[in-house]
Write a structure and sequence with these properties.
Structural class: alpha+beta
Radius of gyration: 30 Å
Oligomer: single chain
Largest sheet: 4 strands, antiparallel
Low-confidence stretches: 1-18, 24-33
Shape: extended
Strand order of the largest sheet: 1-5-6-7
Mean pLDDT: 79
Length: about 350
């Protein structure tokens, strides 16, 4: 269906999770005190990727005559766009069956800026191995969040655009993890000149307690050693993780900045907000982030499958009915015709 012939090899760019994971493992194996984590492994990025994935999984697909745009595939595409900046699938046709097979690693060859002259070499991973497939651009669904004119074959995601903030968030998370991994214990002070025999029973009683309750002689009397009796009972002190407040504050602030870079308002991710702010944030997320990116996905899929595809989020827009109704009333009061006001406010589909 998509034949290809020998094409000259030009510039190449490898992309995929395998390369990033390999770099992370190598960096981690190097040891040292410097942070070696990745922003992709933080809760803030996962929260954003999850929001995008669930939104796309809820899309109503129109015009997909092949039935390939399943909720799972759309969720995978959305997550890849946020985390990696691009999503690539091989089009596989067998009779009347059309499938999109995901690839996590690929190379792009070609010396023409026109994408239709590019050739992809993909790695398709399986449970017990992987195989390499070569396919022309027309046989690949390659969706990019954004691109760089100097490297148009490569998708650029929000984590790359906001690289400094992402790196800072990763460093803060790593430092907090190191703090949390500090040894913890409870220490019971005792007189430096106390006799070993006078505290031996106390030591054995504390060890036998194992976190429970133990009855012991009052330590104000010296626990059998009157000469070294303190003025009051000994008290235990805890040592362990004690991260500075500035780390926690920075982590929260930078995490929210990264979420905003991903197009997800902070109010949707645990920020303190009332219902009105939450609904407005949800409206901004759907109309300002999800819908435009959905148009990019529609264009790529429609072009490669030669079938007009439309992604609708009517179910998700239901939370904005009250706001759209108010907009409709104001438009009509301003003199606009009812049919036009209905379409413009989104209460009915525009013709």
């Amino acid at each position: 269906m998509w034949p290809w012939s020998t094409i000259r090899r030009g510039r190449a760019e490898a992309r995929g999770y395998s390369d990033a994971l390999t770099d992370l493992l190598v960096a981690s194996a190097g040891g040292g005190d410097e942070p070696t984590g990745s922003a992709h492994l933080t809760a803030a990025v996962e929260a954003c990727a999850g929001m995008w994935a669930r939104a796309f999984a809820s899309a109503e697909v129109e015009g997909d005559s092949f039935g390939v745009l399943t909720p799972g595939l759309l969720a995978r595409v959305a997550r890849s766009l946020i985390v990696a900046g691009e999503s690539l699938h091989l089009i596989r046709v067998r009779g009347e069956d059309v499938r999109l097979i995901p690839s996590g690693s690929w190379d792009v060859f070609g010396d023409d800026p026109e994408p239709r002259g590019w050739v992809y070499r993909l790695q398709l991973d399986g449970p017990s191995g992987a195989r390499t497939v070569t396919e022309r651009h027309s046989g690949i669904v390659h969706v990019r969040y954004s691109d760089d004119p100097s490297r148009p074959w490569r998708g650029v995601g929000p984590m790359v655009r906001a690289g400094l903030s992402a790196e800072l968030l990763s460093s803060l998370e790593t430092r907090l993890r190191q703090e949390a991994g500090a040894p913890s214990a409870y220490v019971i002070p005792s007189p430096a000149d106390g006799q070993e025999t006078s505290t031996a029973t106390l030591r054995s009683d504390v060890k036998a307690a194992k976190g429970g309750v133990v009855m012991a002689e009052t330590m104000a009397s010296g626990y059998g050693d009157q000469s070294g009796a303190p003025q009051r009972d000994w008290q235990q002190s805890r040592i362990g993780a004690h991260p500075p407040d500035v780390l926690r504050a920075l982590r929260s602030d930078v995490g929210m900045a990264v979420c905003n870079a991903c197009g997800v308002p902070a109010a949707l991710l645990g920020g303190r907000s009332d219902g009105t702010l939450a609904r407005e944030s949800w409206r901004q997320f759907l109309h300002g982030s999800v819908a435009p990116v959905a148009r990019i996905v529609e264009a790529e899929v429609s072009d490669k499958l030669d079938s007009a595809v439309k992604l609708e989020f009517t179910g998700l827009y239901a939370s904005d009915v009250a706001g759209r109704a108010q907009a409709f009333q104001k438009l009509v009061a301003g003199g606009m015709a009812v049919p036009e006001a209905l379409a413009l406010s989104g209460l009915v589909a525009a013709e």
